[in-house]
Design brief:
The complex is a heterodimer.
Chain A: E1 6-15, E2 18-28, E3 33-37, H1 44-52, E4 58-64, E5 67-68, H2 73-78, E6 80-83, H3 95-104, H4 111-120, H5 136-149, E7 154-158, H6 166-181, E8 185-189, E9 200-203, E10 210-211
Parallel strand pairs in A: 3-8, 3-9, 6-7, 7-8
Antiparallel strand pairs in A: 1-2, 1-4, 4-5, 9-10
Helix pairs in contact in A: 3-4, 3-5, 4-5
Chain B: H1 18-35, H2 37-57, H3 62-85, H4 87-95, H5 97-102, H6 108-137, H7 142-169, H8 176-203, H9 209-239
Classes of the chains: A alpha/beta, B mainly alpha.
Pfam family, one (chain A): ABC_tran
GO molecular function (chain A): ATP binding; ATP hydrolysis activity; transmembrane transporter activity
Keywords (chain A): ATP-binding, Cytochrome c-type biogenesis, Membrane, Nucleotide-binding, Translocase, Transport
């Protein structure tokens, strides 16, 4: 009943004169979790950056809600949340200030809501400590706090489990599943053994790719 | 799968206005800069030192300093802006905030303009504020100092705006410094020539209106075109990241 949020048709990407993948077609439907799989260097991050609109060096077609994505860039960007390798956290700012800056351009929220989101990722008591004094995992958690307050239907998460402890990992898994049940769509790359019921897979690697 | 009974998260239509987003970008850059004050002081100290080394290294004579003072100040200001350019996008690139900036729904050139404005407030404006003191040091008369401040006030935003293009283009490169200077210096030369020319003609008592109008034209040109170029350059740099 629902049309795909994002549809990729015959994507091809070349990097350093090596074809990462070709003829890659898939649909990201609302209410699904999709995992991009493949060995190191198979183009998982590149694919995610393409989907997010950061990488323009590809050919093929991408459709957002049935329309070419390039024609509705603003709507696409407003409704997509991308978390990359580099989490977008300024080491000199506190978690609260970081979160405020990251949400200000999308949906400004009052400070109590932001504080609550930070507490939700286990950063209670650290909201006003400069991020450079936090551990790598805590810094990732600041970025993950965005997921708790996000209203974007499409999430693109690159290596989201990096530097997160096991309790945090299961919390994120629950969050992703809950998100899918609410009708959001999630695309993740991870080397962590993620196995959610009903999860889609996109397998990359070996020059050609196919969807399972 | 019983997809029919699933609620679908609705698409968000309302977006934050460009002006509010620009303000947020500007405020964040200011806050980060004031947490790292030594980075702020660096170009200023460079400016003061270069200007104060000239009397020591070349000649402390009043006639020489009065004649070349405006030129020295302009060159020093230009170089210290150049010195600070690499920081404009570099930290944001390294920690990932730049990716998030590019992915904001607002037009990128406006957000880049806000970042450039913050850069000017943090580097160009302090140079203008320091200029009267250094102008007195190199024996410029009151009228020349006033005109010099005015040319720097119009000129330094142009330096920041043009510099942002170079900083964005060289972002993905390991040794960006040399390339950045090579790219940007030729574009700075007209601003330098008109900046110092204005002060020279003011010192001779000639009217400077035409010079100032031309510098204003530079500013308008840079203000309207440079953010587009910087935004495009940022996209290219991030595309390779």
């Amino acid at each position: 009943m629902s049309e795909p949020l994002l549809q990729a048709v015959e994507l091809q990407c070349e990097r350093d004169e090596r074809i990462l993948f070709r003829d890659l077609s898939f649909s990201i439907l609302p209410g699904t979790v999709t995992r991009v799989e493949g060995p190191n260097g198979s183009g998982k991050t590149t694919l995610l950056r393409m989907l997010a609109g950061l990488n323009d060096a590809w050919s093929g077609n991408l459709f957002w809600c049935g329309q070419p994505r390039s024609a509705q860039r603003e709507e696409f960007l407003r409704n997509t949340l991308y978390l990359g390798h580099r989490p977008g956290i300024k080491p000199l700012l506190t978690p609260l200030e970081n979160l405020r800056a990251l949400t200000a351009g999308r949906r400004p929220l009052p400070d109590p809501v932001l504080r609550q989101a930070l507490e939700g990722t286990g950063l209670a008591g650290f909201q006003d400590v400069p991020c450079r004094n936090l551990s790598a995992g805590q810094q990732r958690r600041v970025a993950l706090a965005r997921l708790l307050i996000a209203d974007e239907p499409l999430w693109l998460l690159d290596e989201v489990f990096t530097a997160i402890d096991s309790a945090g990992v299961s919390a994120i898994e629950n969050l992703l599943q809950q998100r899918a049940s609410e009708g959001g769509a999630v695309v993740v790359t991870t080397h962590h053994d993620l196995n959610l019921p009903g999860m889609q897979r996109i397998v990359l690697g070996g020059g050609a790719a196919n969807e399972c | 799968m019983n997809a029919d009974c699933r609620p679908v998260l609705s698409l968000q239509q309302d977006s934050v206005g460009a002006l509010a987003a620009m303000k947020a970008v500007f405020a964040r850059d200011m806050k980060v800069a004031f947490r790292q004050r030594q980075d702020l002081l660096n170009p200023l100290l460079f400016f003061v030192m270069v200007v104060s080394l000239f009397p020591l290294g070349v000649s402390p004579e009043v006639a020489f300093l009065r004649e070349s003072g405006a030129g020295i100040l302009w060159v020093a200001a230009l170089l210290s802006v150049l010195l600070s350019l690499d920081h404009l996008f570099r930290h944001d690139f390294d920690d990932g905030t730049l990716e998030q900036l590019v992915l904001q729904p607002q037009p990128l050139f406006l957000l880049v303009l806000a970042k450039t404005a913050a850069h000017w407030v943090l580097t160009g404006l302090p140079l203008v504020v320091l200029t009267p003191v250094l102008g007195v040091m190199v024996h410029l008369d009151g009228n020349s100092i006033g005109v010099l401040c005015l040319t720097l006030l119009i000129g330094t935003p142009v330096l920041s705006l043009i510099g942002a293009i170079g900083a964005a283009l060289t972002l993905g490169l390991r040794s960006a410094g040399v390339l950045l200077s090579l790219l940007i210096i030729p574009l700075y030369i007209p601003v330098l020539i008109f900046g110092t020319g204005t002060v020279a003609s003011a010192a001779e008592g000639a009217p400077v209106g035409a010079y100032l109008a031309l510098m204003g034209a530079f500013l308008v040109l840079a203000l309207t075109l440079a953010p587009f170029a910087s935004a495009a350059a940022l996209r290219i740099s991030l595309s390779n990241g």
